[in-house]
Amino acid sequence: MWKKLKLWLFPTEVEGFNYNAIDRDNDGLVQEGTPFERKVTVVKKTAKKPAAKKKTPAKKSPAKKTVKKSTPKKKK
Protein backbone atom coordinates (compact mmCIF):
# COMPACT_ATOMS: atom_id res chain seq x y z
CA MET A 1 0.00 0.00 0.00
CA TRP A 2 2.82 2.43 0.86
CA LYS A 3 4.52 1.84 -2.47
CA LYS A 4 1.36 2.83 -4.36
CA LEU A 5 0.98 5.96 -2.26
CA LYS A 6 4.63 6.85 -2.76
CA LEU A 7 4.35 6.37 -6.53
CA TRP A 8 1.21 8.50 -6.59
CA LEU A 9 2.86 11.30 -4.62
CA PHE A 10 6.20 11.11 -6.44
CA PRO A 11 5.58 9.81 -9.97
CA THR A 12 9.08 9.05 -11.23
CA GLU A 13 8.23 6.47 -13.86
CA VAL A 14 5.52 8.42 -15.70
CA GLU A 15 6.50 9.31 -19.26
CA GLY A 16 7.14 13.04 -19.62
CA PHE A 17 7.46 13.78 -15.91
CA ASN A 18 10.81 15.10 -14.73
CA TYR A 19 11.16 15.22 -10.97
CA ASN A 20 14.35 17.33 -11.19
CA ALA A 21 13.11 19.83 -13.77
CA ILE A 22 14.97 23.14 -14.02
CA ASP A 23 13.37 26.55 -14.55
CA ARG A 24 15.58 27.95 -17.32
CA ASP A 25 13.59 31.12 -18.03
CA ASN A 26 13.20 32.03 -14.31
CA ASP A 27 9.44 32.58 -14.47
CA GLY A 28 8.70 30.23 -11.55
CA LEU A 29 7.21 27.37 -13.64
CA VAL A 30 8.75 24.11 -14.75
CA GLN A 31 7.59 21.73 -17.47
CA GLU A 32 5.41 24.40 -19.03
CA GLY A 33 2.74 23.27 -21.49
CA THR A 34 2.56 19.75 -20.06
CA PRO A 35 0.11 18.20 -17.61
CA PHE A 36 2.99 18.25 -15.10
CA GLU A 37 3.44 22.04 -15.10
CA ARG A 38 4.09 23.27 -11.57
CA LYS A 39 5.39 26.26 -9.66
CA VAL A 40 8.82 26.26 -8.10
CA THR A 41 10.62 28.64 -5.82
CA VAL A 42 13.63 30.33 -7.33
CA VAL A 43 16.80 29.54 -5.47
CA LYS A 44 19.71 31.89 -6.01
CA LYS A 45 23.07 30.22 -6.21
CA THR A 46 25.81 31.79 -4.20
CA ALA A 47 28.91 32.85 -6.05
CA LYS A 48 31.87 30.65 -5.40
CA LYS A 49 34.75 32.25 -3.61
CA PRO A 50 38.02 32.20 -5.51
CA ALA A 51 40.41 29.56 -4.31
CA ALA A 52 42.86 30.80 -1.72
CA LYS A 53 46.35 31.27 -3.05
CA LYS A 54 48.89 28.93 -1.61
CA LYS A 55 51.55 30.69 0.37
CA THR A 56 55.02 30.17 -0.97
CA PRO A 57 57.63 29.46 1.64
CA ALA A 58 59.84 32.41 2.52
CA LYS A 59 63.06 32.48 0.60
CA LYS A 60 65.93 31.54 2.80
CA SER A 61 69.43 32.83 2.48
CA PRO A 62 71.94 30.21 1.36
CA ALA A 63 73.51 28.22 4.13
CA LYS A 64 76.94 29.41 5.16
CA LYS A 65 79.67 26.99 4.41
CA THR A 66 81.82 26.16 7.37
CA VAL A 67 85.47 25.37 7.01
CA LYS A 68 86.49 22.25 8.78
CA LYS A 69 89.34 23.01 11.10
CA SER A 70 91.99 20.41 10.84
CA THR A 71 94.38 19.60 13.59
CA PRO A 72 98.05 19.53 12.64
CA LYS A 73 99.32 16.05 12.13
CA LYS A 74 101.91 14.84 14.56
CA LYS A 75 105.16 13.65 13.19
CA LYS A 76 106.44 10.34 14.30
Outline:
By secondary structure, this protein is largely without helices or strands. It has one helix at residues 2-9, and strands at 29-30, 38-39.
Q: What is the topological layout?
A:
Layout: H1 2-9, E1 29-30, E2 38-39
Antiparallel strand pairs: 1-2
Keywords:
little secondary structure; rod-shaped; 76 residues; two-stranded antiparallel sheet
Structure description:
This protein is mostly loops and 76 residues long. The protein has a domain at 1-40. Helix content is 11%, strand content 5%. It is built from one helix and two strands; from the N terminus they run αββ. A two-stranded antiparallel ribbon has the order 1-2. The longest helix is centred in the N-terminal third of the chain and has 8 residues, at 2-9. The N and C termini lie far apart (108 Å). The mean pLDDT is 78.
Question: Total strand count, please?
Answer: 2
Spatial order of the strands forming the largest sheet: 1-2
Radius of gyration, rounded?
Answer: 36 Å
Mean pLDDT: 78
Task: Based on Cα principal axes, name the global outline.
Answer: rod-shaped
Helix/strand order, N-terminal first: HEE
Task: Give the helix/strand class.
Answer: little secondary structure
Terminal Cα span:
108 Å
SS summary, helix count: 1
The proportion of residues forming helix, as a percent range, comes to 10-25%
* Largest sheet features: 2 strands, antiparallel
In percent terms, what proportion of residues is strand?
5-15%
